[in-house]
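[#protein-structures] MJ: dropping WxcM-like domain-containing protein here for a structure pass
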Amino acid sequence: MDARGNLSFLQEGNQVPFAVRRVYWIYDVPGGEVRGSHAFRNTEEIVLALSGSFEVVLHDGEAERVYPLKRSYVGLYVPQMLWRTLRDFSTNSVALILASTPYDENDYVRDFDEFHQLRNGR
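AK: finished. structure tokens for WxcM-like domain-containing protein:
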């Protein structure tokens, strides 16, 4: 820690296991709203809470795990084909997402039943 303030960083090949092709952020989420609720066929992501806090819920088709993010220096790696939902955003929270692919609507799986079938090879 530095008396002048803190500095955090990410580098491809060290903290980020993929080449970053897209960066986006989510902010001003009204109370009680959720974001995400989809999976990606090919995209990997790192999710960080730059400000405030929120939860990332990951589902693998069988079970779900909840990851609270509340420190800007702790990120969550999300591999492809996991259903992800971001919820419980605190006031003034900012979620920063680093993605391994450019935006492509065809990469999204937006229906949970379809996701479940794809995960289980049906």
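MJ: nice. The chain has a mean pLDDT of 94.
AK: one more thing. The beta strands are 22-27, 35-40, 45-51, 54-59, 64-69, 75-78, 83-87, 94-99, 108-109.
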